[in-house]
Amino acid sequence: MSNARAETLRPRITAVGTANPQPTYTQDEVLELFRCDDPKVRRFFESGHIHKRHLVLPEQGPDGIVPDENGTELLEKHTRISLEIGSEAIRKCLANSPYRADQLDYIAAASSTGFLCPGLTAYFIEGNGMRPNTHRTDIVGMGCNAGMNSLLTTASFAAANPGRPAMVVACEVCSAAYVFDMTVRTGVVNSLFGDGAAAALVIADEDLSATDGPQVMDFESCIVHAARDEMRFDFEEGKFSFFLGWEVPYLIGENVRTPVFDLLDRWGLKKRDISHWIVHSGGKKVIDAIKYNIGITEYDVRHTYSILRDYGNISSASFLFSLQELMKEGVTEEGDWGVVIAMGPGVSIETGLLRW
Amino acid sequence: MELQTLQLERSGGIATITLNRPDKGNAISMLMVRELERLCRQLDDEATDRIVVFRGSGETFCSGIDLLDFPPDEKPDVRGFSRWERACRTIERLPMVTIAAIDGECAGGGMQLALTCDARVATNRSFYHLHEVRDGFLPGMGTFRLAKFIGLGRARFFGMTGRRMQAAEAEILGVIDHLCAASDLDEAVKTTVAAFGDIHPDAIELVRRLFDESFEIAYENFLGCFLAAQNRAIQTDAFKSLIKRAHEQGKTRPRSL
Q: Across the interface, do A270 and B45 touch by the CB < 8 Å criterion?
C-alpha cells in the first residue's frame, strides 16, 4: 500500500438510519391474500429463508382477495411510501449524528421501484428542512446495487469537501413494482422483495476515529454483459414487471471474484485480512454463490441472512441494513477492514472497501 | 522465516512441517502456535506446494498443549486457546492437501492437529488419547471434530475417560487412513500423497467445505450450497479440458493427460 493512499483523508460512514412501512406479511399471508394455490409458485414462498416482509398492499376486497392495482396507483404508492419511509430513515440517521438537516450539503437518493420527476431528493430537501442549495443526485433504474453507486457519489463529494456532511438514502417500495399474475415469473419476484429505506451520513473529518464508523476507502465495479437481460424491468399493460433469470445467482457467483480480489489486490490485502463482509441480501441462492466463490463463512454473512429473513430483499437499501446491524453489534475494532458486495441489474457487481 | 519450534522442508511440491521440540514431546507452546499460523499463511500466499505434511520429530507426534505456558501466579485466560483454534482453522483451510504423519504419542492438541488434516498416516505403534478432561480442562475444538470421525458415543467415552486408543483400533474407527510399520512411515506418506494425485485447489476448498458442512446444514439448504460450489468447480479450466478430452476420446470418463 502506498503511503499517499494511507495518508489521504477518507470519508467515514458515521450514522445509519432505517425505516419500513408498518404492515408486515409472512409468506403464507401473502399467498393467502392473492389466493395463490399453484404449487409451482408456492414453492418460492415456502423455501423458508424469508420469515416476514414489510409490504404496502391494498385493503382486501369483500371476497378477502387483494384487488389489482393499476399502473397509476402503483406509481402513486411508490411516491407516497418513499417519502414516508425515506424521510423517516433520514430523520433517524440525523438523530444518530451531530447534524441537523439544514447542515447537509449533499444528498443522493437511490430508488428503482418507481419513476418520478422531479426526483425524490427534491421532496426530501423540502420535506426534511434541508437548505435549497443542497446539492442533489437521484439515482434511478440501477436496482439492488444502486445503494453502492449512490455511496460512491456521496463519498466522492465528502472526500472532495472535508468537513461538509453528505447523505445517501436508498428508498425502495418493492410493493409498488408488484405484478402478480400467478406465473412463476412474477412468483419469484413477489416472494423475495420487501419495502424499506436506509440513510447513511458520510463525512470526511480528521477528528473522527474508528468508533465513529468505517472509512470508505475504495470501490470496484464489475458489469457482466452476457447477463444484461437476465435482470430487467419489462413494461407490460402500464406496469413495470421485474424479470429475474434463474441463472443470475450462478452468473454473479462466477464473476464476483474479479471485483473483490482486484479490490483487495489494489490494497495489498488478502481475504483473511477482511474482518467484516457486508453482502446484499439478494436471496438465498446468490448469497450461497458468493459464500462459495469468495470462500466466506456463514458467520461472515450472518447479517445478510438475518436481514433477508426479517425484511426480504429490500433492494438498494439492504446493505445499509446489514451495515447498521454490524455497527450495532460492536465487534468492529480500529484497523479492521470490511468489504461490501452488492449486485443487481446490469448484471452489475459493486464492491467497496471499508476500514474502521 | 526463522523457526524455533518447527522445521520446514520443501521438495517436489511437498512441504513437510515438523513439530520440533523433541525434548518436550513436541508439545504445543504459544510460540509454536504463532509459528504454525505464520508458516501456514506463508505457504498459502506462496501457493507453490500442493501437499503439506505434518509430523513430529523423534518418536512422538505431539503430546498436547504445553502447560508451562500458563504463568503459575496469574489468572488463566482463554486467549491462548483462541489462538490455537485459529491456527487449526488456518490449517484446515489451506488450499492444498494436508496429511498428518503420526508416530508414537498423539495426544490432546496433537490429535486435534491430526483431525484438521485431510488424511492421517500412522505407524502401528502410534497411540491416541485426549487427557484433558481427566486433567480438569477440555480437549479444545476436538470436542467439535472427533465425534464426526468416530461417532458421538465413542467420542464421549474416549474424551471423558482419557483412555488410550491404539493404532489398530484408530484405524478401524476411521481416525487413521493408512497404517504402516514404524520403519515405513516415509513410504506410507508417499503412497498417500500419490493417492491424492493432482487435485485442483478450488476443488479441495469446495469439497472439504461441503463435507464439513454436511454435518450442520439441512438438506434443503445444503443443496443450494452444493449447486453454488459445483457451478464454481465446473467453470474451471480443469473441468473444461476434461470435457474436451471426453469428446476427443469419445469416452464417458476420459483418461487423464
A: yes
Q: Which of A143, A152, A139 is nearest to A227 (CA)?
A: A143
Each residue of B22-61: pLDDT tens digit? 999 999 999 999 999 999 999 999 999 999 999 999 999 9
Residue A311 domain boundaries: 210-355
B231/A270 CB distance under 8 A = no
Reply yes or no: is the peptide bond before residue A118 cis, omega within 30 of 0.
Answer: yes
pLDDT in tens, chain A (356 residues): 444 455 689 999 999 999 999 999 999 999 988 888 888 889 889 887 999 999 999 998 888 888 889 999 999 999 999 999 999 999 999 999 999 999 999 999 999 999 999 999 999 999 999 999 999 999 999 999 999 999 999 999 999 999 999 999 999 999 998 788 888 888 888 899 999 999 999 999 999 999 999 999 999 999 999 889 999 999 888 888 899 999 999 999 999 999 999 999 999 999 999 999 999 999 999 999 999 999 999 999 999 999 999 999 999 999 999 999 999 998 999 999 999 999 999 999 999 999 99
Tell me, yes or no, whether A247 and A262 share the same domain.
yes
Q: Tell me which amino acid residue A339 is.
A: V
Q: Look up cell 437518493; give the residue.
A: A109
- Domain boundary residue, one of A151, A171, A203: A203
Instruction: Tell me which of A270, A284, A288 to substitute to probe the interface with B (most B C-beta atoms closer than 10 Å).
Output: A288
CATH number at residue A293: 3.40.47.10
Do A56 and A142 lie in a common domain?
A: yes
Domain count, chain A: 2
Asked if residue A287 and residue A183 are part of one domain, the reply reads no
B221 chain-A contacts, CB cut-off 8 A: 284
Determine the residue of chain B that is closest to A293 in CA distance: B232
Residue B230: name the closest of B239, B243, B242, B241 by CA: B239
Of the candidates B205, B220, B228, which has its C-beta nearest A253's C-beta?
Answer: B228
Distance from CA of B229 to the nearest CA of A (A): 6
- State the cell numbers at B183: 520403519
Task: Tell me if A2 is assigned to some domain.
Answer: no
Contacts of residue B247, Cβ cutoff 8 Å, sequence gap at least 6? none
- Residues of A recognised as catalytic: 144
Domain layout of chain B by residue ranges: 6-196, 201-249
Q: What are phi and psi of A204, to 5 degrees?
A: -100, 115
Q: Is A53 on the interface with B (CB under 8 A)?
A: no
CB A308 within 8 A of CB A51: no
Say how far apart CA B4 and CA B1 lie, in whole Å.
Answer: 10
A299 to chain B, any CB pair closer than 8 A? The answer is: no
In a domain? residue A167: yes
Q: How far apart are CA A222 and CA B39, in angstroms?
A: 34
Q: Is the domain covering B6-196 a CATH 3.40.1360.10 domain?
A: no
Q: Looking at this protein, which amino acid is placed at residue A328?
A: K
Residue with cell 446495487: A145
∠ Cα B151 B36 B107 (to 5°): 40
**Which of A50, A264, A292, A297 is the best mutation test for B, with the most CBs of B within 10 A?**
A292
Mark which of A203, A225, A242 sits at the end of a domain.
A203
Domain contains A7: no
> Which residues of chain A neighbour B229 with C-beta distances below 8 Å?
292
Question: Cα(B34)–Cα(B231) distance, rounded to whole angstroms?
Answer: 36
Q: Is the ipTM of this complex over 0.90?
A: no
